[in-house]
Amino acid sequence: MVKTVEEKIELTVEWIREQVKLSGTNGVLVGLSGGIDSSLVGALIKRAFPDNALGVILPCKSNPKDAQDAIALAEAIGLEYLTVDLTEEHDLLIGKIQRRLEGFDVKNEKLADANLRARLRMTTLYGVANSLEYLVAGTDNAAEVLTGYFTKYGDGGVDIIPIGNLMKREVFQWSKVLGVPQQIIDRQPSAGLWEGQTDEAEMGTTYDMIDDYILGMEIPENDKHIIEMLHEKTAHKRCMPPSPPKF
To answer: Taking the CA of residue 240 as centre, how many other CA atoms within 13 Å lie in the half-sphere pointing to its CB?
Structure first.
């Protein structure tokens, strides 16, 4: 029997509660970016733990609209939140790294800068989570898991991934049911890695194409090639770091 969206939401909420129970922790938190994925996870953890769910907003040279939308989500669903601005810490650390690398042949300073932001956010989330004895919920959906569209030990460094099996179009469906504000639903998907960055432009294909690929549907050969190339290239992100054989 095909389950309704509401039934799937309730099963996911029960799963979140079970994960917290198994871990012996007190609740769950999520980093709120102002985007639809983190907003949906925020709504799910709020439903699972009305009194023990937290949103953490982590500006880092970010567009002010990101924090505004994150706050709009928290207020719409009654999710407690706090803000920790990481701009100063990011500037300090990236500055030290760049000074130490003077004289080296630096290949990808832009990506290193962006990934550092994601890892600073992860570190901060765990600093808060450990203090409260909460789990850290991730925000990656099925398309991002498949293509490895997340920062290793950044937004990929979490305890649970409540929407890891949801296609992007399902993320939109669930978000509407759970009351995510329309201004967030209408946003262009972006990891906020740098000004003007969008997910689909960076990946080279669309979420619709990736969703269709997951469903086993026919898609243009070029999109299929990009998706499979991304999946293969990012295999290391979905595995434990390799170890040599036992000698």
So the answer is: 3
pLDDT at 245 over 90: no
User: Could you report how far apart the first and last alpha carbons of the chain are, in Å?
Assistant: 51
Residues 6+ apart with CB under 8 A from 189: 35, 36, 37, 168, 198, 199, 200, 207
Res 179 pLDDT > 90: yes
Render pLDDT for 138-161 as a digit per residue (tens, 0 to 9). Answer: 999 999 999 999 999 999 999 999
**Token representation of residue 74:** 């928290």
Tens of pLDDT, residue by residue over 98-142, are: 999 999 999 999 889 999 999 999 999 999 999 999 999 999 999
Angle at the Cα of 166 from the Cα atoms of 165 and 170, rounded to 5 degrees? 165
Pick the closest to residue 55 from 36, 35, 71 (CA basis). Answer: 71
The identity of residue 226, as a single letter, is: I
Exposure string for 111-143, b = 16+ CB within 10 A, e = fewer:
eebbbbbbbbbbebbbebbeeeebbbbbbbbbb
Torsion of CA 31, 34, 40, 46, to 10 degrees: 60
